[in-house]
């Protein structure tokens, strides 16, 4: 029954500021929209630990049209049914007539109106993340599909070493011992994607408490992937049990980036049809995995399976340790 679904399965902070504040150049900070680094005619600035970027650049890239009112020094941005109004030097803003308060007011820097990137992006319906390691603002719209690669990665791991993935989520941290000897191709792929920050801020899009939790798709739809597929490593050397980590797929040799973690006894039914490459096992933090599995869910739009999380659960980062 796992093979018939059409989606991948298991088979399924930062505008310028009030004059009293000081804007500090933040040339080392990158702003990405759907994975593409933005280039502005005025570099981002930091004001009270908030990142400000040129007004026109951020609004128009996110699909909004803007109107400037010189007399009031205010801007109106429209995207679809949403209307956002801001004023230079004022921390007050509105969205669709609702009053909002900015942590930092818009300001002019070198003849450019600068606005808080987080406020603007979120007001226009995008998700915004701060990546401390890369010093970047990561903006993801509904069109985000994740980084795409032309082919699966070359072998980069050393199977003489032990690899552990430290998975940081907004529910806590757990660790996965990776089976690089049993499934070297799959572990190599996982290590490559993790080190490339591919999994950062990716949602757990499918949760069935008695069965498994599934993640690894940057689109959050269950149909996304890295742009390539690679071969299965079957049959699995270890049985499907709670805590086991395996690749999700849409059929033979269609592995990409999505994976699942067994969370309940129902995962053992997969032992009757072992079509999913096992490449690791939770070695610490199973309580966190269980907490994720306990997330309230509702029926998916495309079927009657009750597995769509009501609240957002995400991977913050995956750190690979090797010994």
TrEMBL record:
Residues 172-320 form the PPIase cyclophilin-type domain. Pfam families: Cu_amine_oxidN1, Pro_isomerase. Residues 1-25 form the signal peptide. GO terms for biological process: protein folding. Keywords: Isomerase, Signal. One of its GO terms (molecular function) is peptidyl-prolyl cis-trans isomerase activity. The keyword Isomerase applies. Coiled coil: none annotated. The keyword Signal applies. PPIases accelerate the folding of proteins. It catalyzes the cis-trans isomerization of proline imidic peptide bonds in oligopeptides. PANTHER family: PEPTIDYL-PROLYL CIS-TRANS ISOMERASE, PEPTIDYL-PROLYL CIS-TRANS ISOMERASE-RELATED. This is Cyclophilin family peptidyl-prolyl cis-trans isomerase.
């Amino acid at each position: 029954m796992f093979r018939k679904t059409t989606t991948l399965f298991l088979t399924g902070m930062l505008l310028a500021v009030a004059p009293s504040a000081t804007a500090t150049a933040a040339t080392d900070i990158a702003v990405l929209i759907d994975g593409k680094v933005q280039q502005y005619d005025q570099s981002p600035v930091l004001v009270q630990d908030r990142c400000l970027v040129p007004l026109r650049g951020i609004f128009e890239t996110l699909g909004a049209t803007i109107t400037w009112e010189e007399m009031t020094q205010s801007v109106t941005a429209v995207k679809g049914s949403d209307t956002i109004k801001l004023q230079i030097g004022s921390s007050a803003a509105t969205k669709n007539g609702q009053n909002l308060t900015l942590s930092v007011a818009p300001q002019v820097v070198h003849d450019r109106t600068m606005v808080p990137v987080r406020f603007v992006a979120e007001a226009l319906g995008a998700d915004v993340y701060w990546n401390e390691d890369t010093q970047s603002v990561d903006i993801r719209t509904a069109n985000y599909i994740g980084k795409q690669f032309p082919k699966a990665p070359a072998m980069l791991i050393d199977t003489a070493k032990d690899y552990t993935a430290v998975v940081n989520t907004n529910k806590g941290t757990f660790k996965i011992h990776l089976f690089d000897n049993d499934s070297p191709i799959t572990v190599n792929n996982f290590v490559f994607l993790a080190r490339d920050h591919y999994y950062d801020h990716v949602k757990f899009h499918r949760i069935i408490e008695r069965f498994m939790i599934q993640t690894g798709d940057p689109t959050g739809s269950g149909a996304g992937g890295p742009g390539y597929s690679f071969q299965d490593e079957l049959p699995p050397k270890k049985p499907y049990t709670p805590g086991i980590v395996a690749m999700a797929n849409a059929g033979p040799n269609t592995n990409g980036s999505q994976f699942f973690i067994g969370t309940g006894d129902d995962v053992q039914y997969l032992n009757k049809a072992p079509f999913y490459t096992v490449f690791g096992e939770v070695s610490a933090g199973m309580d966190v995995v269980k907490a994720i599995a306990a997330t309230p869910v509702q029926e998916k739009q495309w079927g009657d399976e009750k597995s769509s999380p009501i609240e957002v659960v995400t991977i913050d980062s995956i750190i690979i340790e090797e010994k």
